Amino acid sequence: MPHVLDYTKMNVHPDQLPPIRTGLRLMLWAGDGEHNDVTDVVRLRGYDVFLCLGIQKEILQRNIDRMVGSQTLCIINMREKEQMTEFCREFAGAFSHIDSDYYGNTPSLPMNYYNMLLGSGGMARNTVGINGIIMANEDMLNTVELFFPALDEKTKQRRFWDKAVIAVASRDDLSPGEVWSSSGFSHHYYDYVREAQDRFITWQKQRNSVWPSYKPTLVEQWESLGADVLASRISLPIAAEHLEHFSAYLTQKIVSILEDVHARSVGNGRGLLREGYCGSHSYTAKCYQAPHDRAAFQPNRNDWPLH
Q1: CATH 2.170.140 fits 3-124, yes or no
Q2: Which pTM was predicted?
């Protein structure tokens, strides 16, 4: 049968706790939400335990009413250490999988809690919280940093560090570099901060393999980016001249790919006509008339310096 454990009312639990099994699946920040008339517990049927704050009482009740089997819903304020201590005591080592429901703003659970809750070989995903207030600013910085890296030196320095490191530096009135190199930073209390910085570095290098360095020209910078980054949506109003340059660059890349495809299938004898739009200029590019007569559209490829 389903269980509801309210940790905001200390020790107000059912007379008998649900049998704590191992290998459970925990979904953080879910259990009091509803999206498109579907409650969290229905949308996430594959999870055994849900952890939420339970602010919206009516929606919380609808979730409780739709729980099935041995699903357990835990109402808790994760910022209250006593409540989290109780939760970790009762579910120590019980989970094989912990995930976060990325709907709206979500907090970050300190890594020491994951260490207590996960069983041997357990895995945690999506451990970094989301703050919708700063997402627009982050999108802007990501776009500038990747496509048109012209950040001022102070902002560029901040982009070397995860926000968790910056928060500690601000608290202690130090620079992020001073925090990172201090002897006290090796204490296990800061494990989650060091892990956050490691994830930040991995993420940056996945986007830009030479990070934190940048190429001297825009075209060289774009050449260093992966296809998944180049295909992402630019979320910042960029000067028209830069967008036109970038559009011309992408056109050249596409034409180059088409040429390679044609070269590998040169025996079919079929021509290929491509039409498109580049900046403010429409074009028709007869990439291949026939295997022996290739005339590809080549946009003007100047190197546009970053500075």
Answers
A1: no
A2: 0.47
